[in-house]
């Protein structure tokens, strides 16, 4: 089961040929993390978290941020040991063997393809709100929401995922400058939101703080985890960091601390101004986010609650008398979110590409377009799936399913750190996880805690996905694996496989 291991020495030999200049200090790492993390989750999932936890979602941000922090410290050790623009798939192949690597790669399909769908749905919500409020056009809900969310099909979400697919086939890549501008737009919009809402907070809006108890706070934390993913971009900069043993923890913990405070301020601004109590159905039962029942309950109150909004931050600003700033925040989300979809889909295609090149998926998937020099087959296939996900499923469900894959991958990396400390204690580690026998188990337990805090439907979907992965592995991949057949090729230099090289989901 664990016998087929991809040679760590061979991977590292490749890395030596392309070693990078060490120039990043603690401040640069922290800013890299802030830029990678802040984004989609806070724009899109605030309403979902409010429906699950009420004002208690502020505590949910702290819990999710803490789990990310301990996972990040484990991730950093692996990234510094295997600095090949790494990924959880590569790390697992080198440490725990092919089957675990396959399962991690299979889980990362959930992380990236489903996440791209979630962001597409989030973008659709802001775009529809922007059109309705800018041009006073009433958009039929049937065509901008999926069947689980009170509609028929989400056409704007399908459209944006289709446009991104075409760009990826043509070979369009984001430049660092464009990415920096988009990060500045996101942070600027959220800062403006905080500056305008915090002064008008009313303390009475925070009670009851946890209307659904601690289980609601845990459920919201499991969803909000989506708002933090992207921190691993810091972990993989270990090879370019001066004094990584000191600067890496500062960058990781510092960026997550700043983002957690930022997120709590945004959440406080929403709660303290317009309130964030869940909407209840018959028998005072809290309705699940992204369901027809919640849509019907919201229509009865004319969507006059933040939990009913598909563009929570812009809606809040309009409610407290800042319609123009609400318009600006909506515009910022519309501008910034497509770049995240692009990075998610780019990441997904590269995972498929490398798994195909390792023989675990059909070689047909790794075909490269003769003119555009991109893996066009797998890009179109990924785009098709993302379009279907975004057309028919609500953002909260997609984010939760994506989180299940991410949590599995992060737990696997944390286990890999412990395994390597035992099996290869003398190997050079530019960064060593502090108190690893405490931190790594906390990371594993934290990932497990957030996983079991997801909805039962999400957990069953993940189990079904994992079972399907085992069928594919034993039915196809195991017999065609290059490592299993002794055909080990070194292509790590151009793999650049996420989750590490591709910022950011958040």
TrEMBL record:
<feature type="transmembrane region" description="Helical">
    <location>
        <begin position="57"/>
        <end position="78"/>
    </location>
</feature>
<feature type="transmembrane region" description="Helical">
    <location>
        <begin position="377"/>
        <end position="399"/>
    </location>
</feature>
<dbReference type="InterPro" id="IPR002293">
    <property type="entry name" value="AA/rel_permease1"/>
</dbReference>
<feature type="transmembrane region" description="Helical">
    <location>
        <begin position="178"/>
        <end position="201"/>
    </location>
</feature>
<keyword id="KW-0812">Transmembrane</keyword>
<dbReference type="Pfam" id="PF13520">
    <property type="entry name" value="AA_permease_2"/>
</dbReference>
<feature type="transmembrane region" description="Helical">
    <location>
        <begin position="435"/>
        <end position="452"/>
    </location>
</feature>
<keyword id="KW-1133">Transmembrane helix</keyword>
<keyword id="KW-0813">Transport</keyword>
<feature type="transmembrane region" description="Helical">
    <location>
        <begin position="458"/>
        <end position="476"/>
    </location>
</feature>
<feature type="transmembrane region" description="Helical">
    <location>
        <begin position="324"/>
        <end position="347"/>
    </location>
</feature>
<feature type="transmembrane region" description="Helical">
    <location>
        <begin position="99"/>
        <end position="131"/>
    </location>
</feature>
<feature type="transmembrane region" description="Helical">
    <location>
        <begin position="151"/>
        <end position="171"/>
    </location>
</feature>
<protein>
    <submittedName>
        <fullName>Amino acid transporter</fullName>
    </submittedName>
</protein>
<feature type="transmembrane region" description="Helical">
    <location>
        <begin position="213"/>
        <end position="238"/>
    </location>
</feature>
<dbReference type="GO" id="GO:0016020">
    <property type="term" value="C:membrane"/>
</dbReference>
<feature type="transmembrane region" description="Helical">
    <location>
        <begin position="26"/>
        <end position="45"/>
    </location>
</feature>
<dbReference type="GO" id="GO:0015171">
    <property type="term" value="F:amino acid transmembrane transporter activity"/>
</dbReference>
<feature type="transmembrane region" description="Helical">
    <location>
        <begin position="405"/>
        <end position="423"/>
    </location>
</feature>
<keyword id="KW-0472">Membrane</keyword>
<feature type="transmembrane region" description="Helical">
    <location>
        <begin position="250"/>
        <end position="271"/>
    </location>
</feature>
